[in-house]
Design brief:
The protein is α+β, with helices and mostly antiparallel strands and 262 residues long. It has one domain: Fumarylacetoacetate hydrolase, domain 2 (Alpha-Beta Complex). The protein has 6 helices and 13 strands. β8 and β9 form a beta hairpin. This is 2-oxo-3-hexenedioate decarboxylase.
């Protein structure tokens, strides 16, 4: 049974308020078992509208479930996506207040900054790279609004794929001729290496994740605007953080970025 517009708005408001009030809730499919993937993206759209209405600017997009292992675990054959708002952005090296978060974790990613707009269908890696202004190292802070990070696929899509904060480096790198498959990534917490990885962890190539995003947006009548920041997906496993932690990511040829939790 398709969910009514009123129910979609009710779920979006629940998740919006949970983030604002820094409180966790049970996954939405517990109360709304008919919530499917299509309806979950409608909830995400309604959540975005609530944020835009209060003055948040749309900055870009993010990809989730971009490892084949995670997709298999969730029983899907495609990644998922969410949006990035101006309320998610953190300056390089800045402090993030843990009191504003529920149970944060960090992941290392590669950010694409798009010079040109991209429209599906059948977007290719080559088209993505040609449309990319620059690449930047990134840390995404994920913070599910669900109790104990417990969710299913529709619930996490509705919750904007656990989007919370992100930081990107300040030194832009050209995408031309760069081997994104074998590029090395190191995630450090408090000066200790906690995760290492390579670009191939993201669908074999992070640019492929961006191409898939473009096609997924096209399927819903949307496109990827010029100027968008795109977090292409986690290269490392998520690492829990708390007040007092300092996190840094270093990516071969792209430099580093970091943030502090207070």
């Amino acid at each position: 049974m398709s969910l009514s517009p009123a129910t979609i708005e009710e779920i979006a408001t629940l998740l919006h308020d949970a983030e604002r009030d820094v409180r966790d809730v049970v996954k939405v499919t517990d109360a709304q078992p008919d919530l499917d993937t299509e309806a979950a993206y409608r909830v995400q759209d309604a959540l975005r509208a609530l944020k835009l209405a209060r003055g948040v600017r749309l900055v870009g997009m993010k990809m989730g479930l971009t490892s084949f292992a995670k997709m298999e675990q969730m029983g899907v054959d495609t990644p998922i996506y969410g949006f990035l708002g101006s309320d998610n952005a953190v300056d390089d090296g800045a402090a993030v207040e843990t009191a504003a978060l529920i149970h944060p974790k960090v992941e290392a990613e590669i950010a694409f900054v798009m010079r040109d707009a991209l429209q599906g269908p059948d977007c290719t890696v080559e088209q993505v790279l040609a449309a990319t202004a620059c690449l930047l190292p990134a840390i995404e802070v994920i913070d599910s609004r669900y109790e104990n990070f417990r969710f299913d696929l529709p619930s996490v899509i509705a919750d904007n794929t656990s989007a919370s904060r992100y930081v990107i480096g300040s030194k832009a790198a050209n995408a031309d001729g760069r081997d994104l498959e074998s590029i090395g990534v190191v995630l450090e917490k408090n000066g200790q290496v906690v995760e290492v990885g390579a670009g191939a962890a993201v669908l074999g190539n992070p640019a492929r994740a961006v191409a898939m995003l473009v096609d997924m947006l096209h399927a819903r009548g949307q496109s990827l605007p010029a100027g968008s920041v795109v977090l292409s997906g986690a290269i490392t496993a998520a690492v829990a953080v708390e007040a007092g932690d300092h996190v840094q990511v270093r990516i071969d040829g792209l430099g580093s970025t970091g943030l502090r939790f207070v």
